[in-house]
Amino acid sequence: MKNTKRRMFRFSLYDRTGIVEYLEDQAKSGWVIEKIDNFGFKFRKIEPKDLHFSVTYLPELSEFTPLPDDKQMKLFDFCEHTGWKSIESTLQLQVFYNENDDPVPIETDALIELENIHKAGKKSFLLTGYLFVIISVLQLLSAFLRPCDIYNVTFIILWSVLLIAHSTELIRYYYWRKKALKNAMTGGCFTPSKSNVWFKNILTVFLLLSLLMLFVSSAFEFGLPIVVFIILNVSVLFLAVSGVLHLSKAMRNDGVSEKTNKIITISLIIIVTVFTVSIISFIGILLQII
Amino acid sequence: MPREKFQTLTEQMFYVLLCLRNECYGLDILDKVPSMTNGRVNVGSGTLYNLLEQFLELGIILETKVEGRRRSYILTTKGKEMLEKEYVRLCAQVTDYRNIFDTEVK
Lengths: 290, 106
Prior knowledge:
With about 290 residues, chain A is an alpha+beta fold. Chain A contains eight helices and seven strands, in the order E-H-E-E-E-H-E-E-E-H-H-H-H-H-H. Chain B is built from four helices and three strands, in the order H-E-H-H-E-E-H.
C-alpha cells in the first residue's frame, strides 16, 4: 500500500481558508501534508485524526532566497512556541499544523494578514496574473490580424481560455480583498476566502482540448513532421528549463546568495530558450528552402 | 481604506509595545501578553512576527541582542511617544464615558 501521495495545487494562492479546510479534511481521512512546492501537495499516510492547520505568508521569501532563511526560521520559532509545527515549503505560502485542542491562531490581526497576502501576491499570483493577461491580449490582437483558418481559430480559443482564467482570478481576488478589508476594519475578523475549483477544472479541460486542437490544426496547416519536430523541441526546452530550476533549488539549499542565484538562473533560462528557438527557426528556414 | 499605519494602536500592538518597555525576547512576548491581560488578549505568532518587523522598520523598537536565533528588543523614544499618545487617547475615551454615565446617574 502506498504511504505517500501527491495532489495538484488547485487553489488560488490567497485562499488560505480553502487550503486549511482541504488539509484538515485530508488529515481526518488519514493523510497529513508533508511538503508543499510548485508541483503541489505531498501527503503521508497517518492514523486519521483531527489536526488544526494554518496558512500564513512570508512575502520576503522568493524562489531564490537561500535556505534556511533567517526570517523564515524566526517565524518558525514563534510558531513552534505556540505549538504550531512547520511543513516543508519553498513558497511564500507557509503551512503549519497543531495537535493541541484549542490553539492560539497564528494570525490574530486580519488587517496585517491581508496586507501580508497582498505583499506576497504582488511577487507571485498578481504578477503572473497581470503578465498572462497582457500576453493573452497581445496574442489575441495578433491573431485577429491574421487570416481566418482552423489554426488561427484554435489559437484564439487557446489564448481566450488563458485570458478568462487569469482575468477572473484577478477580479475574484480584488473583489474578495475589498470585502475582506472592509470587514477587517469594521469587525476585525478575517473574511473566509474561496477558490473556484470547479471553474478552474473546466478551464483546464478547455485548455487541454484547445492545445490538442492547436496541434491537430497545425499538422494540417504545416504538415505532421514539422509539428512533431516543434513538439520535440518544446519538450527539450521544458526539460532544459526544469534542469535549470533544479540547479536553482540546489543553489538555494547550498546557501548561494539570492542575487547570484537569480542572475545565474535567469541567464541560463534565456540562453536555453534562445538556443532552442534558434534551432527551431533554423530548421524551419532550412525546410522552407528544401 | 486601511487605517493609517499606527496612527492609533490595536490592542495587540499596544500590549506588544508595553512588553518592550524593558528589554525583552520576541518569543517571551507571546507569553507575557496573555499573562498581563489574564488571557483576554492573545497575540498570534505570525501577527507578532509581522508587528516586530514593522516596528523595527519604522524605528519604533530596536533590536538589542541576538543570541543564536533568539532576539531581544526594546522601545525607542519614538515607540515610547506612540505608547504615551495611545494612553492619552484611551484616557480621553474613559473620561468621555464617565462624563456621560456619571451625569446620567446624578
